[in-house]
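ENTRY TYPE: protein
WANTED: fold as C-alpha cells:
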Amino acid sequence: MGGRAKGFGRVTLKVLEVEQGEWAVLRVAGEMDLVTSPAVRQHVHDAVAEGRRSLVLDLGEVRFCDSSGVGVLIAARRLMRSCSGRLRLILPAQGAVDGSHVNRVLAALGVRRLFEVYPDLHTATDETAEPLSA
C-alpha cells in the first residue's frame, strides 16, 4: 500500500497507509472536518475492498476533529463489524498535539467506549494487548 495525501486549500489532511503484519494501518494527520473526513472514509473503504479485515487508525496527529470526523469513525466501526473485521484506534495520552484531541471529542460525545483504543502502534497490533479503558 502506498502513501497518499490530500490537501484542501489551507486545511490539510494526510493519510499514510502502511502494513504491520496482518494489520492495515492508516496514519491520519491534520484536521478531520466536513471537507477532509471523506478522504479518511475512502481509505477505510479501500482497505476493506483490498480484503483487509484488521485495521488500525492512528489518530495521534489529528489536531482537530468535528462531528463529521466522529461520524467517519463510527461508520468505520460499523463497516469493520459488518465484515467480521477489527478496528483499533491509536489515541496517545501524550504527544505532539498535547494529548489526543480525538480522545477528548469522543469522550465528550459519549462514544469513546465504542472503540478499542491503544496508546501506540506496537500495542495496537499486539494480539495480547488490552485496550485502554474508556
Q: What stands out?
A: Residues 32-124 form a domain with the Transcription Regulator spoIIAA fold (CATH 3.30.750.24).
